[in-house]
Design a protein that fits this description.
Helix content of chain A: under 10%
Mean pLDDT of chain A: 92
Distance between the termini of chain A: 39 Å
Strand order of the largest sheet of chain A: 3-4-9-8-5-10
Largest sheet of chain A: 6 strands, antiparallel, barrel
CATH superfamily of one domain in chain A: YaeB-like
Number of helices of chain A: 0
Oligomer: homodimer
Strand content of chain A: 25-35%
CATH topology of one domain in chain A: Elongation Factor Tu (Ef-tu), domain 3
Chain lengths: 157, 157
């Protein structure tokens, strides 16, 4: 396991742990994501359905697995946050005065740095999906695509 | 990479590929999930906020990362679908007459078998979260927990 933040680079209030060296499961990337954002500071805090058009390029091996996807209006996209730090339990996001537990925020820095965005599907051209709603870096590795389903009986709105 | 469905076990209309043997990223499980469902046939098709109470047990190493989570009404939970088949591009879910592209359905059988559920948080007791809305097997390995944020400008409802 890589991507550990060394003790000396912690901000005040942050806390890191020693990660295990063993892995429990393995991922294979299935494509990559093209967005307008070239570094983390440029990325929006959260994607928006009226944000810029982004592309999801699916490896040709997996292109047949897109069959039927064109019928869906919104998708859940999973991707690997390849610039993340993985060993923080408490972290201090910019603009906050108190450290936050890693699971209480949507920071990319987490033990398994997987991003999940719900996007609006505009069109599919061959192995390329054009979507709106992403907020990740250009070149982000793709993990999965599935139809979005809203939680049932969502009384939290 | 394991969990390949051999040619001879494919249903009519299903299509499998040969997975690469190399991994692009590694996961470390951070806990496990307790639900009432002991085998795949018992699991509901989709979780519900008025479904049964389930528990998410976070490894003690990661317990400090729960700080602040109690303020959230709904969470996104990511978990590893440990009984999934990973090499199907077309698959035939029970009850369908035509094969479906893997990315066009929410089947657990997918190249990177990660489940995402939005759950309602009832309470946190130490390293255990009590939630409603899961639909996964008892003993499912936990990958991540984060606050749920609805997509912005969701005009798909």
């Amino acid at each position: 396991m890589e991507e550990q933040k060394p003790e000396g680079q912690l901000r005040p209030g942050e806390k890191a742990i020693d990660l295990r060296t063993s892995a429990d499961a393995e991922l294979q990337f299935i494509g990559s994501i093209r967005t307008p954002w070239k570094n983390r500071a440029d990325c929006p805090r959260q994607g928006s359905f009226d944000g810029p058009l982004c592309s999801i390029e699916v490896d040709e091996t997996w292109q047949p697995a897109l069959a039927g996807l064109e019928a869906e209006a919104s998708l859940d996209v999973l991707y690997w946050l390849h610039q993340a730090t993985r060993n923080l339990v408490l972290q201090m996001p910019r603009g906050r005065s108190e450290p936050a537990g890693t699971f209480s925020i949507r920071s990319p820095n987490r033990p398994n740095p997987i991003g999940v965005s719900t996007v609006r599907l505009e069109r599919i051209i061959g192995n390329r999906l054009e979507v709106r709603g992403l907020d990740c870096l250009d070149g982000t590795p793709l993990i999965d695509i599935k139809p979005h389903r809203r939680p049932r009986f969502d009384d939290s709105r």
